[in-house]
Design goal:
Helices cover 0% and strands 50% of the residues. By secondary structure, it is mainly β. The strands form two sheets. Strands 2, 4, 5, 6, 9, 10 and 11 form a seven-stranded mixed sheet that branches. Strands 1-3-8-7 form a four-stranded antiparallel sheet, with no helix packed on it. The protein is globular, with a radius of gyration of 13 Å.
């Protein structure tokens, strides 16, 4: 089981980023998927979750309509579109397979002028 995140970087406040998570070693299309994040000195926190088909999504309270989780089961890839980014969104973002308790290595997102 392997999940690898891509797409992090430095962005100005108000900007956008799209994170990707490439999955391999398991049948991606039958597992719910999630994004988490961890800021320096803070606990890891839930960002978003998506159902197997993609028809159902759940977000952390702080998202407030700014992020969209999606998936492409044909490409074994999970996405997180992040808009209206704020400095407090700075964190390492992780892809997570809940049922398999499998984490990626994370990708750094920094929101700063």
């Amino acid at each position: 089981v392997q999940v690898v995140e891509f797409g992090g970087g430095l962005v100005q406040p108000g900007g956008s980023l799209r994170l990707s998570c490439a999955a391999s070693g398991f049948t991606f299309s039958v597992y719910r998927m999630s994004w988490y994040r961890q800021a320096p000195g803070k606990e890891r926190e839930f960002v978003a979750r998506i159902s197997v088909s993609g028809s159902s999504t759940t977000y952390g309270d702080f998202v407030k309509g700014r992020f969209t989780i999606s998936r492409d089961n044909a490409k074994n890839t999970l996405y997180l579109q992040m808009n209206s980014l704020k400095p407090e969104d700075t964190a390492v973002y992780y892809c997570y397979v809940p049922t398999l308790n499998s984490w990626g290595q994370g990708t750094q997102v920094t929101v700063s002028l």
